[in-house]
Write a structure and sequence with these properties.
The protein is α+β, with helices and mostly antiparallel strands. The chain has four helices and five strands.
Length: 136
């Protein structure tokens, strides 16, 4: 049996009004540099963000969130950051910011399959209760 994967992860948040500190979890970034794995999945509903701030620019939020999986994938589409190593891209994505798109503190996990880990994290941290995609 193969050894479990150890990975780092961070929850992606939208903070519509930074001064208020209220946020909605909208995605997850998972990094396992040993396996060459860096992935982000975004699942957000504009209505949840608009409930915190009805004046939120949802088009701008969507554009900024769409950049995160591109940066994870790397390559020319990700701009200069796309040329960095997997670990450097992860560290750049999770660096503390005082902007509308932020990440929660980085945590560590272990799993047998990295695809299962990201689904589990989305179920627990992002998807509203009752909307989990997988049964455990």
């Amino acid at each position: 049996m193969p050894a479990p994967h150890t990975y780092d992860y961070a929850v992606i948040r939208v903070v519509p009004r930074v001064e208020r500190g209220e946020f909605v979890n909208v995605g997850v970034i998972v990094c396992c540099a040993r396996e060459g794995h860096l992935e982000a999945r975004i699942e957000w509903e504009a209505d949840r963000v608009l409930a915190l701030d009805p004046t939120s620019d949802v088009a701008s939020i969507a554009a900024n969130l769409a950049a995160i999986p591109l940066i994870c994938a790397g390559g020319p589409e990700a701009g200069p950051i796309g040329r960095l190593s997997i670990r450097e891209r992860f560290d750049w994505l999770v660096a503390p910011r005082s902007t509308m798109i932020q990440t929660a503190p980085v945590h560590m996990g272990r799993c047998d399959r990295l695809d299962d880990a990201i689904e589990h994290l989305l179920d627990r941290m992002v998807r509203p209760p009752g909307r989990a995609r997988r049964t455990r």
